[in-house]
Amino acid sequence: MPETVRTAPKTLAAASIAVGCVVFAIKLLSWWVTDSVALFSDALESIVNIGAALAAFVAVSWSQRPDDDDHPYGHHKAEYLSAVLEGALIVLAALLILREAAVGFLEPRPLTAPWLGIAINLCAGVLNAVWALVLIRYGERHRSPALKADGRHLMADVVTSAGVALGLVLAVVTGWSILDPLLAAMVAVNVLKSGWTLVTESVGGLMDAAPPEADLSRIRRAIAEHCDDAIEAHDLRTRHAGRRTFVEFHLVVPADMTVARAHVICDRIEAAIRREMGESVISIHVEPPHKAKHENLVKV
User: Fold this and answer.
1) Would you state the pLDDT for residue 204?
2) Which residues form the Cation efflux protein transmembrane domain (predicted)?
3) Structural domain count, the chain
């Protein structure tokens, strides 16, 4: 793997910690200026962002450790553990926001310097949006669950900030102070949904769930288009573990085919799969004609 590809996830994860601290400071300032429950709730979520970024940094660093005797298939699933933790932290943030919203409902209070606070909070939202897009795009391109989860987490925070700003504008214009805690509660529900989605997706990775149908189609096509001279390919099984894709299937070849020729076909198929999926571990079980099943075939 090129050095830049190997080190970039760790660098981005470290940068996320710094970005999270800056965003938290900005949001804390916006709350201090306005005394808004919604802005305080938004700042609370940023504390979780920092913790999630730390978890992502540890997970990415661990996942890049080379295979060893105790972990012959690598350490890539460490990223899924981080993503599960991030999801749990998002859920915790939602519960904290709901608590603050309840306090605001019981004791509504007027906002001070709302326009300045809204402007400050929007600056934090813009910074989060830019960084979230960087993490999501890199995470998808290089199949890094931890970075993608961190990016989605930040994007949920962007939605939070935008909703908070809109709600506070309405509260100031209408004079309805109750909109402040109401908005905080609505934000909490959105954040809770984001956390639940992240946890379920990450648990699927830990449980070796099948990859998306689009990835399966690419793998099937690579096999079908490069298995010339073989009789059939069947019983395909595949899964993702972070950046690495595991693929295994049976390849039935003619009885008179030499081992060398069968090996050439396998090499050709493996190269095609790696062109499609990147870093992959591929196991092909070569079988004689009487093992042909004529079912569970690999087809495009």
Assistant:
1) 66
2) 15-207
3) 2
